[in-house]
Amino acid sequence: MPNYNVAIIGGGIAGLSLAYFLSPHRSVVVLEREDALGYHSTGRSAAEFVLRYNAPEVCRLAAISKPFFDQPPQGFTEVPLLKRRGGVMIASSEKLARFEQILAEEREATPAIERLTVEEALARVPILKPGYAAAAFYDPNFWDIEVENLLQGYVRGARRNGCDILERREILAARHDGSGWSIETSAGEVSARIVVNAAGAWADPVAALFGVSPLGIVPHRRTAITVDLPANVDATSLPEINEIDEDFYMKHEGCRLLASPADATPCEPSDVQPEEIDVAWAAHYVEEATTVPVRRIFKSWAGLRSFSPDKLPVVGFARESPHFFWLAGQGGYGILTAPALGALGASLLAETPEPEGFRCEGLDPARFDPRRFQK
Question: Could you tell me the pTM of the whole model?
């Protein structure tokens, strides 16, 4: 059977970014159960890059990732990976105290944030409904991520380094003979010294197949819809719109408006589909906060965001097995943090120094060690 140093289970952004950074140092295979790479969470992402508004550790991972997005290696992509979008945070009259608190916190970290009058907010976001937003601020540091170009850049680079990326390889069973794994897949067996669990929503079930204790990684469903914009609205000129407590967010998706009720409903790992109630809430927020009439929903979908118990990523070897490595629990930030976490995972597996960005940001990689859940 084919023999590798490392077998990565999962062909989403986590597994493929790791394959890209690790393949210059080790022989690597990526095993993906679906017909296409990035089918689940990666392919259904809202593709947003921000440096704030998340947990402090996630914000530092974003800062570590930013140089890669700004200046990817030569030959990685032919188009920029980030496009500045800007974001407007809005609050209704009932949330003015909350708005002032968040504005003060964010201005301290990002002096470029600009407080907007209601009139200025309406001018910057012409689809806002007059009377809905009582306060607003503009943050220039929102970007759209070119997700497909990022994903394909990782794929091309990994393959150039000799990595095998195999679709339609569902994991059926595994056994360890003391020196390595024999992995039975739906299309034959593969052997590897180390297995990486980058299976996203399926991370805990995959661990069980390898005899490793689950960590409590739970997938959560998030819903989005797209609706038509009025003919006189240029979708590409709209900033992202965020409700102050993330009750909803909206941004352009091609020539249409994408809206999400920012739901996070625990669910089983699956090819998740949107629930009617969540679609209805998304449409409700469009009509409540904007002047866009929802005459039809052009498209609706749901994706999975998988969280560890403390809502932070998990990167490192399992306590009970030095041959089983976790790269999971990105919680909806997998694309945002892929350059940082991919490089960190590669450094741990290849036993090379930790990426420079972690030292610059004062972020200890041990913060993501899976053994934190097994004390």
Answer: 0.95
